[in-house]
Amino acid sequence: MAKKIEILETWQRKLLGQDLDSCSPKELQDIGNQLEISLSNIRARKTQLFEEQIEQLQEKETLLLMENARLSKQCGAQPLQQSNQVVSYLSSCSKNSDIVETDLYIGLPPMRCL
């Protein structure tokens, strides 16, 4: 059992890039292949998680749109009209926030006489 643990720890160090100077070219190739396989598995899992998250967000969007329509009906407002108002408000805010006045300037500080 102790020998297995030692072999696994050695393999782990090699996968982490430690003690590679004692490896043969075949061992280095095997380590590279193992890293490629692991990286491929990680990318596949990441893609799967992103797809699941996109699906959940699309379901949430549908529920929110339905709730928005229900609330708009309840208030007697038009949903499209509200969204146009929000878009125009946000665009006006972004236009107004482009210019900010400060006391900062670019260049050397003014010369002081002593």
TrEMBL record:
InterPro entries membership: TF_Kbox
One MF term in the entry's GO annotations: DNA-binding transcription factor activity
PROSITE patterns given in the database record: K_BOX
GO CC annotation terms, alphabetical: nucleus
Domain K-box positions: 1-81
Any Pfam family matching the protein: K-box
Name by which UniProt lists this protein: MADS-BOX TRANSCRIPTION FACTOR 56
Source organism of this protein record: Salix koriyanagi
